[in-house]
Design a protein that fits this description.
Distance between the termini: 62 Å
Structural class: alpha+beta
Helix content: 25-40%
CATH class of the largest domain: Alpha Beta
Largest sheet: 6 strands, mixed
CATH architecture of the largest domain: 2-Layer Sandwich
Number of domains: 3
Low-confidence stretches: 94-122
Order of helices and strands: EEEEEEEEHHHHHHEHHEEEEEEHEEEH
CATH superfamily of the largest domain: Chloramphenicol acetyltransferase-like domain
Radius of gyration: 27 Å
Oligomer: single chain
Number of helices: 10
Shape: globular
Length: about 450
């Protein structure tokens, strides 16, 4: 019996995936459990195995292309079976669900003509998210009639209707496919000025059109869009408050040198993770998140370390830091970072964090502000070490100016969860640990 292979949903926030590589081509035999293809999810590249023995009858999505989750991307069956007939049959079986606004994961895409006819003669096919957007924003459904849906069987998705009312009205009048338009508004919203000129209508140029020379145009999709949407949601939903201080790393550097002399290795990030674990045990209310109407405080200290991977920003998570030694953390961090950079983390290795550290010190950044990684309550930004003039007391009790290695740190917190005094005490204690690093190891 044939099976329709769909774009899998491998993460809670995953709405679409990018097909990176096919390990089989049409006509090839495949065995259950054998890797069939690889996709880029919201964080990393993941291999997907075949769930049956058979022959790859048809491939619907090419390498490098994107598709919404649950979209058919291939058909596997036995020799002699007709993949087009299988897709058509699956589409007919899902018609009843489609009429209720629930679009089947194995529906065959309809032609533009079929979609246009159905929009005129029947209720618009809207995905659940699109229906919610229409309801929440009070959108007149008649204004959506000109939209060619990118969902199953031509269903209209939330992304398809992210356009201003004037843009939708203009697109409907001029026969413009909004799916082909890149929006310049907030969250990628399509504005009237984004629409191309239609015959008989003058274009609406942006104010500085004469000064712009476009070098390239990159789709705002996949990992970049997921990261952007999640952080935009955090920034504009969670009231951020920031707490900054500077750390004298003289003793921290000396400790690292002693560890190296002893034949062990530990990076600054390893020591930061261990110190953060100690500080979160001292101030556990920072190790929390807002879930619905409740603030949940965790016993486990799971610290994420932001890493620039081959597929965008990735945050591998070290679980249960509160019970690990520096050598444990150093070994685990090296492994996670290497696989994060190459895009080979499993989903459970970049989820479940309770606190995040973003260390841009290796890139020479002197100071920066990080956005809280939801649903966590805080993120610590760590900058590069720079020699600076500071005032210290000498052996005689006099104040003198000396050059010391200084590192800036900044804690960003979700003020709905974390009070200012708690955040200030955390930063103060964290600084004390770094400036007296032997305490980190105790």
């Amino acid at each position: 019996m044939a099976e329709i292979i769909i774009m899998p949903k491998l993460g809670f926030n995953m709405d679409e995936g990018q097909l990176v590589k096919w390990h089989k081509k049409a006509g090839d035999a495949v065995v259950k459990g054998e890797v069939l293809f690889e996709i880029n999810t919201d964080k990393t590249a993941m291999p997907v195995e075949s769930t049956m023995d058979g022959i790859v009858l048809k491939i619907l999505l090419q390498e490098g292309d994107f598709a919404p989750v649950f979209t058919p991307i291939a058909v596997i069956g036995q020799a002699g079976e007709d993949p087009d007939a299988i897709l058509a049959q699956a589409g007919e079986a899902s018609s009843a669900a489609s009429e209720k606004g629930v679009l089947s994961p194995v529906s065959a895409p309809s032609s533009p003509a079929t979609v246009a006819a159905s929009l005129k003669n029947a209720e618009l096919r809207l995905t659940p998210k699109a229906r919610k957007l229409v309801r929440d924003e009070g959108i007149d459904q008649t204004s959506l009639a000109g939209i060619q849906g990118s969902g199953f069987r031509g269903g209209i998705t939330a992304a398809d209707i992210k356009a201003s009312p004037l843009a939708r009205k203009t697109a409907a009048r001029d026969g413009i496919d909004l799916a082909s338009v890149r929006g310049s508004g907030a969250g990628g919203k399509i504005m009237r000025t984004d629409l191309p000129a239609a015959p008989g209508h003058a274009p609406v140029p942006p104010p500085d059109a004469a000064e712009k020379a476009v070098a390239s145009s990159i789709p705002y999709k996949g990992v970049r869009r997921i990261i952007g949407d999640r952080l935009a949601g955090s920034k504009f939903t969670a009231p951020h408050v920031y707490f900054s201080d500077s750390v004298d790393t003289t003793r921290l550097s000396a400790l690292r040198a002693r560890i190296k002399e002893a034949g062990d290795t530990a990076s600054v990030s390893d020591l930061l993770i261990l110190a953060a674990g100690r500080a979160l045990r001292r101030y556990p209310d920072l190790n929390a998140s807002l879930e619905g109407e409740r603030i949940v405080v965790y016993r486990s200290v799971n610290i994420g370390l932001a890493v620039a991977g081959s597929n965008g920003l990735v945050v591998p998570v070290l679980k249960n830091v509160q019970g690990k030694s520096l050598s444990d953390i150093a070994g685990e961090t090296r492994d996670l970072v290497e696989r994060a950079k190459s895009g080979h983390l499993a989903p459970e290795e970049y989820s479940g964090g309770t606190f995040t550290i973003s260390n841009l010190g290796p890139f020479g950044i002197e100071n920066f502000t990080a956005i809280v990684n939801p649903p966590e309550s805080a993120i610590l930004a760590v900058s590069a070490v720079r020699k600076k003039a500071v005032v210290v007391g000498d052996e005689d009790g006099n104040e003198v100016i000396v050059a010391r290695p200084i590192m800036n740190i900044q804690l960003s917190v979700d003020h709905r969860i974390v009070d200012g005094l708690l955040a200030a005490n955390f930063v103060k204690y964290f600084k004390e640990l770094l400036e007296n690093p032997i305490r980190i190891l105790l």
